[in-house]
Design a protein that fits this description.
globular; mainly alpha; 205 residues
């Protein structure tokens, strides 16, 4: 009996381990967000009118691509990525719906104040998500900080009817979208080359 207990005490237990071999979905979500944001804010800055190009990008790249990325982040157990990509994907789909539904006769067009509150709520959400980026990297911090500023600028523009402020928000939004584009490409190239090709600004844990 003593020998059996001794054998049990020295026995090494081997537990199976699972290795995650799935791809990083963050670049997909960031590119879907970044490219669509740049194009929409080129409109806000006054370069061209709102048309089917932006609406199409809003549905497919800003909306569906980000939702797909969010579901992939869920598979990886990334709560932050799941929440961010899925909700911002829904944001783009809802933004397109707000533009299209009145033209289809499904709903009345929103008052300017309603759109202002819509943008304000998204700004508050983004400000909260920015707090989460403080533990990730500097590049993502810039994306969320500039996006927070963008939402608040657009909300204030709608509250006040200040067209010049909306144009300023457009230029700021272009910077925000390009920062998301950079962050995505940096992640792709750094993984492909196996070394930091483009810096993301690591945060000390």
């Amino acid at each position: 009996m003593a020998q059996e207990l001794a054998a049990m005490a020295t026995r090494v237990e081997y537990a199976p381990t699972l290795k995650d071999t799935t791809a990083n979905p963050a670049p997909l979500g960031l590119l879907g967000f970044g490219m669509t944001t740049v194009l929409l804010n080129l409109h806000n800055a006054g370069f061209f009118a709102l048309g089917s190009m932006i609406l199409g990008m809003g549905v497919w790249c800003g909306g569906i691509a980000q939702i797909v990325a969010g579901l992939m982040e869920w598979k990886k157990g990334n709560t932050f990525g799941t929440t961010a990509f899925t909700l911002y994907g829904v944001f783009w789909l809802s933004l397109v719906a707000l533009s299209v539904m009145p033209k289809l006769g499904i709903a009345e067009a929103n008052e300017t104040s309603a759109m202002a509150f819509y943008l304000l709520v998204w700004g508050l959400f983004t400000a909260c998500m920015f707090m989460g980026t403080l533990k990730i990297n500097r590049a993502l911090q810039f994306v969320f900080a500039s996006l927070t500023v963008l939402f608040f600028l657009l909300a204030i523009s709608d509250f006040t009817g200040n067209a010049a402020l909306k144009q300023i928000a457009g230029y700021e939004g272009i910077i925000c979208g390009l920062s998301a584009f950079y962050t995505a490409i940096a992640q792709v190239l750094n993984e492909v080359y196996g070394r930091p090709v483009l810096p993301l600004g690591a945060v000390k844990k």
